[in-house]
Amino acid sequence: MTQRLAGRTALVTGSSRGIGRAIAQRLAAEGATVVVTARSASAPAPSVRDGATHLLAGSLGETVQAIENAGGKAIAIPADLEDPEQRAGLVDQVVEAAGGLDILVNNAGFADYSTIAEMSDATFDRTIEHYLKVPFILARAAIPHMRERGAGWIVNIGSSTGLGTIRPFRAYNKTAGDVIYASAKAGLHRLTQGLAAEMLDDGIAVNAVGPSTAIMTPGASALLPDGYETEPVEYLVQTVLEMSTVPAVERTGLVAFSLHYPYATNTPVMSLDGRTELPRREPPAWANPNILPEGI
């Protein structure tokens, strides 16, 4: 382990399970004090999709335990990011609990796929809220604290669906119902690049990282078609780490992808505990052709 993040504090949203938990583990393995947040501290929180309630495994307590078992440091601060009051006060709670904030990873999300003809206003509003408004609010709250420290890193979790649609249209595009999700992710990519320009002179780097294909998580399993080839989470997590390390003047405004970026830049990909190097993994030929290897 290189301890590249020793002395830094990171906030990772949506970190009770899946991608968020993995990001928190990797940043902690590099020496960061990681504040993890989700709706519930000790038990799985219900998730509502298409009017139905689902209970997905995972809690902040489990994430903290995994980090501490590996020798890292984590703090759990429960917050419902759909609640305006809770999300407005989250960054201040992080600073009070951890003494500052250096890295913000906007990972928390809500994916409820539906074709536009069948989508409710509530689903549309929640999707835009999660993927545009929440990152905007948390970034705005984090900026003054990062300015005080003279540097900072904001990483938004993007998606290849936010890139141009592959033509001719695939059967998946006709029925998947990911159009509003994809549109929100495209907006998040643009927010990332615009905020990067605004923050460059303050030394605050702003980048986005998305899966090159898809990652199997408790939340994603119901959305992926049968037989879809997924990728290990470690490649995305390593790319997030790379976007959380060097000064803004060296790397900011990128929308990078998990398999493409490490492969193109010969970046070693490590296990979540930072101890084992994983095999170099070439992006599959069927990945979105609009992905640029070193980022957009």
UniProtKB/TrEMBL annotation:
UniProt record similarity statement: Belongs to the short-chain dehydrogenases/reductases (SDR) family.
GO molecular function: 3-oxoacyl-[acyl-carrier-protein] reductase (NADPH) activity
Keywords for the protein's UniProt record, in alphabetical order: Cell wall, Oxidoreductase, Secreted
Reactions performed catalytically: a (3R)-hydroxyacyl-[ACP] + NADP(+) = a 3-oxoacyl-[ACP] + NADPH + H(+)
PANTHER family in alphabetical order: 3-OXOACYL-(ACYL-CARRIER-PROTEIN) REDUCTASE, 3-OXOACYL-[ACYL-CARRIER-PROTEIN] REDUCTASE FABG
Annotated Ketoreductase domain residues: 8-212
Cellular localization per UniProt: Secreted, Cell wall
Taxonomic superkingdom: Bacteria
Protein name: 3-oxoacyl-[acyl-carrier-protein] reductase MabA
Signal peptide residue numbers: none
Gene Ontology BP annotations: monocarboxylic acid metabolic process
Keyword hit for tRNA processing: no
